[in-house]
Amino acid sequence: MKFIQTFIAEAVEILNKLDTAAIEKMVDVLVGVRQEGGRLFVLGVGGSAANASHAVNDFRKIVGIETYAPTDNVSELTARTNDEGWASVFKAWLAGSHLNSKDAIMIFSVGGGNLEKNVSPNLVLALQFAKEVGAKTLGIVGRDGGYTAQVADACVIVPTVNPEHVTPHTEAFHSVVWHLLVTHPRLKASQTKWESVK
Q1: Percent of the chain with pLDDT over 70
Q2: In the chain, what are the domains?
Q3: Nearest-angstrom CA–CA distance, 96 and 110
Q4: Which of 12, 26, 102, 156 could tie 36 with a disulfide, CB 3.0–4.6 Å?
Q5: Do residues 158 and 173 touch, judged by C-beta distance below 8 A?
Q6: What DSSP string runs through 42-104?
Q7: Closest by CA position to 106, among listed 177, 159, 166
Q8: What CA–CA distance (Å, rounded) separates 53 from 84?
């Protein structure tokens, strides 16, 4: 029981420490993307890729932004990885999607990418490419936020309250923050099913 209580207490502590100004800045960026008819690309690897897939559904269905995750197309992802290499896979995918200044990318990551340590270099190259073409950059990341926190237009860093639980807390709070975003009154465009059932 002690572990369960501790884990839950850590989650409550994270909730209380979330940077609400950073979240509001993400709302501002996403409102602008929708108004300009831009698209949103959600990037993540591992558990963050699964989160990206779920977020795509919510941003498309609830918010009304055309949204994609490169990891949802396993054939193209693995072909590019095989032919061109893992580090460039997202950059190449975004280039093939004609990423432009009306669009945004959103990074889901525990560490945010670090070229020096060769951790998630594909996220770093995607962020660099987005900056080159003038696309907006967003992130929900953990630890110190890595490269994502350094360059993103808006970034929420999930506070580290226990270094032993950085990954599970960060990946859980990807979901908390993106659900907050799609529910925000400035973004929510369609009613969700269970809230409409009497």
Answers
A1: 100
A2: 2-191 (3.40.50.10490)
A3: 26
A4: 102
A5: yes
A6: EE--THHHHHHHHHHHHIIIII--EEE-GGG-HHHHHHHHHHH-STTHHHHHHHHTT--TT-E
A7: 177
A8: 23
